[in-house]
Amino acid sequence: MEKKIVFSGIQPSGKLTIGNYIGVIKQWVKMQKKYNCFFSIVDLHSITTYKNNFNINNNILDTLSLYLACGINPNKSIIFIQSNIYEHTQLSWILNCYTNYKELNRMIQFKKKKKISKNINTGILFYPILMASDILLYNTSYVPIGLDQKQHIELCRNIANKFNNIYGNIFNIPKPCIFKNGNRIMSLQETNKKMSKSDKNLNNIIFLLEKKKDIFKKIRLIKTDSKKCYKIKHDNNLGLLNILNILSGLTGIKINEFKNNFNNKIYSDFKNEASNIIANFLGKIQENYYNIREKKKFLKDIIYYGTIKAKKIAKKNLFKIIKKIGLKIKI
Ligand code: TRP
Questions:
Q1: Pure H helices in the chain
Q2: Buried b / exposed e along 222-237 (16+ C-beta atoms within 10 A)
Q3: 3 strand-pairing partners
Q4: Rounded to the nearest 5°, which phi and psi values hold at 263?
Q5: In tens digits, what is the pLDDT along the chain, a chain of 331 residues?
Q6: Closest by CA position to 127, among listed 96, 150, 158
């Protein structure tokens, strides 16, 4: 039986955080064993927000190196840059014409962005359609994403169903894969919001490339009350519970095991030990990363071969769609 297809992507717009790793990239690494995976660097999505002072080529190579350092294997998975495959934008236009604009207006991410910016471009409104094109172009079955993207996948499913109702079974209806633990990784100092790479307060974030001393510093800054005892069983300190979630997410060890281990420890010991575990874990990824990032030719080859493979499939599938809606006339 043919392996099912997985598609996912990350914008090359900033540095990746441990939240991205635990919530998404770790799932990608696992899924490679069972599925045919497409992992894209979605640069066209990133230009909806980032334009000036933004070295996209370096950011793309940084992101690619991080994918590889975390365990994405280019011999198993197809890695490519979204803008290199024109079929994505072509399908995106077609899907625009099968989507009611009210559906786009309803997207939570769009509404949030509209609120914080007066000068909003239409790329932000059409963002989820380009995302639907990424997914539907490859007959994807599963889409590993963070919880914030769930509504976009629902929209993608609606569009695919609408299309199928008119033209027959053209698209697979993709399912989102959301790893619950990953969505519990909150900002370090403000635990009422998710850890986000675009947070202006850097003390809220641990990046995958965070230096050891900064990991210690940021964890030390988390507020604890004046009790000296760290009784995690009775603890309702959200900042420390967040750290436990991070430890569990990184290592795969159950949270209760960590709770038992740290029971009755004083806060500062807990913080130091937790920082050490995180720093060791990230240290290995960082070592891989810096090795890989040097090898420009190796990185470019990965993109080159990934693009060739993805392009072949995208071209074939887009042709089918275009034919189906009656646009292609043989001359
Ligand atoms: N919008 C996604 C995010 O910001 C990135 C993305 C673009 C994506 N295209 C995709 C994710 C297709 C999954 C599948 O996280």
A1: 18-20, 26-31, 43-46, 56-70, 87-96, 101-105, 108-116, 122-136, 150-167, 212-220, 238-251, 255-262, 267-293, 296-324
A2: bebeeeeebebeebeb
A3: none
A4: -55, 135
A5: 789 999 999 999 768 999 999 999 999 999 999 999 999 999 999 999 866 656 889 999 999 999 999 999 999 999 999 999 999 999 999 999 999 999 999 999 999 999 988 889 999 999 999 999 999 999 999 999 998 899 999 999 999 999 999 999 999 999 999 987 767 899 999 999 999 888 999 999 999 999 999 999 999 999 876 665 666 655 668 888 899 999 999 999 998 898 888 887 888 889 999 999 999 999 999 999 999 999 999 999 999 999 999 999 999 999 999 999 998 766 6
A6: 96
Buried (b) or exposed (e) across 51-67, using 16+ Cβ within 10 A?
eeeeebeebbbbbbbbb
Lining residues, ligand 1, CB within 6 Å = 7-9, 11, 42, 45, 131, 134-135, 143, 145, 149
26 noted as active-site residue: no
- Tokens representing residue 205 in the block: 């974030």
Active site residue: 4, 197, 315, 324, which one?
Answer: 197
Q: Which residue is catalytic, options 15, 76, 113, 311?
A: 113
Count of alpha carbons within 13 angstroms of residue 215, beta-carbon side: 25
In the three-class reduction of DSSP (H, G, I as helix; E, B as strand; rest coil), residue 60 is classed as: helix
Structure tokens at 263: 């029971």
Distance between CA atoms of 331 and 321, rounded to whole angstroms?
18
Instruction: Report how far ligand 1's centroid is from the alpha carbon of 236 (Å).
Output: 34
* Other Cβ atoms within 10 Å of 140 Cβ, number: 25
Q: Name residue 8's beta-bridge partners.
A: 39
Q: Which atom of ligand 1 is nearest to the CA of 134?
A: 12
Residue 262 backbone class (left: φ over 0; alpha: ψ -120 to 50; beta: rest): alpha
- Residue closest via CA to ligand 1's atom 6 equals 9
Could you tell me the two tokens for 10? 């990350």
Closest CA to 124 of 104, 110, 140, 142: 110
